[in-house]
Specification:
Layout lengths: L1 E9 L3 H16 L3 E2 L2 E4 L9 E10 L3 H14 L15 E7 L13 H4 L1 H10 L12 H6 L8 E3 L2
Antiparallel strand pairs: 1-4, 1-5, 2-4, 3-4, 3-6
């Protein structure tokens, strides 16, 4: 089994859609590791606030099949895909890491880990001593050095 970390975000009926995402992932993969959930401002566009979290699963699926499963869960929750990458959404599930794999062609680890506080902070909360694949830096140390930490309000679902 391989530990995979997945980011989850939603700003359309966010409480409902985040709870549904957790339940769908639990049904598909069993026991989950759940980070705190944070309310954050939309990034890249004007829109309602997002709920964001990171979810850990153990899986035997290879990354490409895991991504297909995540996309199916997004679709089951009414995800509409358009040209604009930065837009409101019912659910966004992104594969962040797959074990210690470093494969830039597959986008693993996902570069959003180092770019966005709403990805790095929940990952640092739930896996502080794990190292970013291909480096010696832990998620806690990356978060400690993250520039301009935005306000991130923890919420209870």
């Amino acid at each position: 089994m391989t530990r995979a970390w997945i980011s989850a975000g939603t700003n359309v009926e966010p409480e409902h859609n985040m709870r549904a995402a957790i339940e769908n992932l639990r049904q598909a993969f069993g026991e989950l590791v759940l980070s705190p959930v944070y309310r954050t401002r939309a990034v890249g566009f004007e829109g309602d606030d997002f709920l964001n979290m990171v979810i850990g699963i153990n899986t035997e699926l290879p990354p490409d099949e895991l991504r297909r499963r995540l996309r199916a869960i997004e679709d089951s929750q009414g995800r509409v895909r358009g040209e604009n990458r930065f837009a409101s959404r019912t659910l966004d599930l992104d594969l962040l890491t797959w074990g210690n794999l470093v494969d830039r062609n597959q986008g693993i680890p996902r570069d959003e880990i180092l770019k966005y506080a709403f990805v790095l902070r929940p990952l640092a909360d739930v896996a502080p001593t794990e190292q970013y694949p291909g480096s010696q830096e832990t998620y806690a140390s990356l978060w400690a050095g993250f520039p301009g930490k935005p306000a991130m309000v923890p919420v209870t679902l």
